[in-house]
Amino acid sequence: MIQKILIANRGEIALRIVRACRELGIKTLAVYSEADVQSLHVQLADEAICIGGPKSADSYLRADRIISAAEIADVDAIHPGYGFLSENAKFAEQCESCNIKFIGPKYKSIKMMGDKAVAKDTVKKAGVPIVPGSDGPVENETEAVKVARKIGYPVIIKAVAGGGGRGMRIAHNDISFAKEYHVARNEAEKAFGNGAVYIERYIEKPRHIEFQILADSHGKVLHLGERDCSVQRRHQKLIEESPSPFLTSDLRKKMGKAAIRAAEAAAYENAGTIEFLVDAKGNFYFIEMNTRIQVEHPVTEECTGIDLIKQQILVANGEKLSFDQGDIKFEKHAIECRINAEDPARNFAPSPGTIGLYYAPGGHGVRVDSHAYSGYVIPSHYDSMIGKLICFGTTRKVALERTYRALSEYIIRGIKTTIPLHKAIMSDPVFIEGKATTAYMEDFMSRTPPDLFS
Ligand code: MV4
After folding, report:
1. Choice between 192 and 166, residue whose per-residue pLDDT is larger
2. Is 292 a catalytic residue?
3. % of the chain exceeding 90 in pLDDT
4. Is residue 301 within 6 Å of ligand 1 at its C-beta?
5. CA of 116 to the centre of ligand 1 (A)
6. Do domains 4-102 and 132-201 have the same CATH topology?
7. What residues does each domain of the chain span?
8. Superfamily of domain 207-453
9. How far apart are CA 390 and CA 400, in angstroms?
10. CATH match of 4-102 with 1.10.10.10
C-alpha cells in the first residue's frame, strides 16, 4: 500500500489532498516555493521541503527538484493536483521510471489526449460525436481555406497542443480566415512550441458540460454525472453546478455512455473529465479530455457522496473500484462558486495582499475548500483563486438559496474578491432560471451596474 505521498501543488488543492491522505492513514510530504512558507498545506503536511523561488518555473514546475524531493523523503507516489505538472506526460513518465506512482492516468493517455486532434480522432472512432471539422491538423493556408469553406462559416481555429481555450480564433469569412489562420499558427508556435492547428464549425452560445470519469487499472470505467460549467469569463470558470439545469434524463444517459466510450478509447485510468459542447437543440459534441482532477471536483463529490481524491489514490494503488455504475446515486444538487482575489468592478484585476479578517460560512449543506485564514498573505505569483464555496441540497432551489445565504456570511477583509459578484449572479433571473450558456457572463456584466457586484 502507498504509505507516503508527495503533493506537487499548492493552495487549496494541496490542502484537499493532505486531508484525504490523513483519513487514509497515508503520510504527506508538501513541497513549496519561497512564497508559500506561510501556506496551510505546508503546515498541515507531515513533512515539507522547499523546492525553489516564488516563480512557478523555479518551483512547482521543476520536475527535477520535485523528483529529488520524492527520493530524499522516500515517498511511494506523487499527487500532481491540477495545473502545474498535472497534465505533463513527460513528468508522469519520469515518475514511472523512478518507480514512483503518478496519481493520475498512464503517461500514454496523457500524451494522446494532450494532442487535441488525436483525441478527437480517437473518440470519433469509438462512436462519440465530435464537432464537424478538419480531419486532423490542416497543413497550409490553401488546404485550410478549402476545409473552412466546406464546413461553412463561422469556423473556429484551435491549436492541437492547446486546450482550455488558449490559442483559439474565430473566422466569419475567407478574408478574416486567412488572417486568423496565421495568427492562430503563430500564437500556437509561441505558446506551445507547436504551430499545428485544426478547424471546427463554430457552435454559437453553447453550454459547456463535462462528465466526471473514474476508471481503475482493471478495465472498469464509470461516470459520476456531469457538471455544467457554462458560467465562465475568458475561459476562467466562475461557477459550476450539477446536475445541469439544461440536460434531460435522456440526454444525460446518452452523454454519460459517450463519455465512458471516450475514456475507454484512451485506455483511461484514474479520474478524468470528458468535455462536451451542447447546442440549444441538445446536440452534443466531444471537444477535449482533461486528464487530471479538476478544480470543480467537489461538486461531483457532494452530488454522489464519493471522495474523488481518495478514489484516485486507491486506483493508483492498483485497487479495484468497489462500486458499479448502478450503485452511484445522484441525490443532491450542488453549486460551486470560485472565490478569487480579484476586483470584478475593475475588469477582474488581481487583488493580492494580506487578508485581514477571514471568516468562512458553514452550516447545513455548506462546504468551503480554502487555504486562506486571517492574516494570510496572498502571493502575487500564482492564480488568484483563494477558495471554493460548494453548497448543496436536495433541489436546485435549495442549493441556490443556500449559496446566497453562505455568500452573505463570508467575510474576507483587506482585499477585493468575487463574493459580491456571486451574490449578484445568484439573484439574477437568467441564472436562477437555468438559462446560462457560455455567453452568459459577457451579457451579465454588460447589463449590470458595477455597484451590484463590488
Ligand atoms: C468551441 C466553441 C464553439 N465552437 N468549439 C473554449 C474552451 C475550449 N475547451 C473549447 N472552447 C470552445 N470551443 C467550437 N467548435 C466555443 C468554445 C468556448 C467555450 C467553451 C467552453 C466554455 C466556455 C467557452 C467560452 C467561449 C468559447
Report:
1. 192
2. yes
3. 99
4. no
5. 13
6. no
7. 4-102, 132-201, 207-453
8. ATP-grasp fold, B domain (3.30.470.20)
9. 11
10. no
Q: What's the alpha-carbon Rg for the chain, to the nearest Å? A: 22
Burial category of 324 from C-beta neighbours within 10 Å (exposed 0-12, middle 13-18, buried 19 and up): exposed
Could you report the per-residue pLDDT of 375-424, keeping only the tens digit for each? 999 999 999 999 999 999 999 999 999 999 999 999 999 999 999 999 99
pTM: 0.97
Ligand 1 geometric centre to CA of 277 (Å) = 7
Q: Provide the residue count of the chain.
A: 454
Contact by Cβ (8 Å): 98, 71: yes
C-alpha distances out from residue 32 to 39, 107, 444, Å: 9, 24, 38
Residue nearest to atom 10 of ligand 1 (CA): 165
What is the Cα–Cα distance from 235 to 332, expressed in whole angstroms?
Answer: 27
Q: CATH for 132-201?
A: 3.30.1490.20
Distance of CA 330 to the CA centre of its chain: 21
- Measured from the Cβ of residue 429, the count of other Cβ atoms closer than 10 Å reads 7
- Quick: pLDDT tens for 362-371: 999 999 999 9
